[in-house]
Amino acid sequence: MINKLRQYRHAVIISTLFTTLASMAGIFRFDHYVSATFDLGCFTEMVKTTLQGIKGSSGMLLYDRTEGFSHFAIHFSPAMFIVVPFYAIWHSPITLLIVQAIMVGIGGFLIYYLAFNVFKLSKKVSIIVLLAYVLNPLVWSLLVFDFHELAFAVPFVMLMIIGYFKKNNWIFLIGLGLSLCVKEDVIATVGLLGVSLIVIEWLKTKKFRLNGYAVTMIIAAVVGICVAVLVSWKASDNQVPQILNSIIQRYTDSEMIKKPTLLSTGIWYIRYVFDSYSIGQFIAYFAPLCFLPFFSIEWGIPACFVLLIAMVSTWGGQHNYINQYGMTAVPYLFTATIVTLSKKGKEWDIQKNIKWMAIGGCIAMAILYLLTNLTGINELIAPNFNKMTKEADSSLNQIIKDIPKGESITITGNNLVLPHLVSDWDAYEAPTQFGTVKSIYGYPQTNTDYVITDTNTLISQNYRATFTGPIVYNWDIEMAKELGESNNYQLVNTVGDVDLWKLK
Prior knowledge:
Blueprint: H1 2-6, H2 9-31, H3 39-54, E1 63-64, E2 69-70, H4 84-89, H5 93-118, H6 123-134, H7 137-143, H8 153-166, H9 169-179, H10 184-205, H11 212-235, H12 242-252, H13 262-273, H14 276-286, H15 297-311, H16 316-319, H17 330-342, H18 354-371, H19 377-381, H20 387-401, E3 410-413, E4 426-429, E5 450-454, E6 461-464, E7 470-473, H21 475-485, E8 489-495, E9 498-503
Parallel strand pairs: 3-4, 3-5
Antiparallel strand pairs: 1-2, 5-9, 6-7, 8-9
Helix pairs in contact: 2-5, 2-6, 5-6, 5-8, 5-17, 8-9, 8-17, 10-11, 10-15, 14-15, 15-17
């Protein structure tokens, strides 16, 4: 038994170090107000309201104050309940970041386990696969984003895949059930994997073989999608499910595709798929793995699907650069790579050249990290961390410290400040470019007791698109002007470029 455990010691060490680094990166970004969007604040709010609901107070399950309704209305993510008991121990957004790092770290170990234990690849090759995972741009795109439920995708899907290859029904079903609880796009990839396994097997052998595991995936995915839509319908007050509206909006909401003919719209989509942003995403998905997933395409097809829906998205935040959504493709990309490495025969004996494959993958990742902004890794290393930013951090910390504590106190802050407020106050999101008329925000839609405005452009809502310069949105400047002209609010404190406004 001890000898068996020793076989995994290098993988455990690498996974543990990776988890520690990922946790530190998340905490560093949180402490210095460089979280990517308002997601960390929203997810913390969901976990907080769920805990309140369980305790029997006024909370509701996964209630998202920013959207004004349950998270189930727009995404099917029961896996978020896993975070609740940890948040009950430590009421902080940092709890979510640590849980995320642990889940992604476990996913890396399971990838190593699949390579070393299930496919019997050499320890050297298996370690190289694990290192490719811990350095992968798609993985770090999630970790330096914020918190996202897709952190659960890799460990849960990998558990299902391990059960599939080991012919262990219990492991397979547990992994399958957990995978269906992550998010609706993960459900879709599970069903697509089942279809892919059956179709590719038939194309290769010209014989139809009933694959019980694949059929189970397909049936489970169909049921899962139906359940997701039904739950969304109920959470949307029996109106048109918000989950459908969000999908339609993400792929049709663009002035550029509102063309007079179906043909012109189709041509626009084709051009969109082959633009520089989409090509950059394609390189980020496959170049670090030396395009090996294409040699076991039945396992790589779900990853291609994830990439395609990113390419055709009309929402710039998904189309323009690699972000957290690529995490859905990771378990399939690495499974396809491992299957390819395990194939025998002169034309498939890639292990003999594994050294050069590893070098090629490292070069590809270095190019991605250094020449593009596909992952935001530059923000992790040096997030505008100069004197002005340090002063802005200090100003925000001082302003927040001066606000009276209490769940009954309402407060509004922008997306970078929101995660620092939700655990201690009844916090609202300030208007941002993500805002819609259906969303519930703080001032001016809701007159909260306090409003924080940060007019420092370095610490404001800063987004950067691939291959372009920075695009800065500082809505707080306009909000501060409106508050100054309002008869409802008075300025009660100013520290640096940060103002605190109080309702009269």
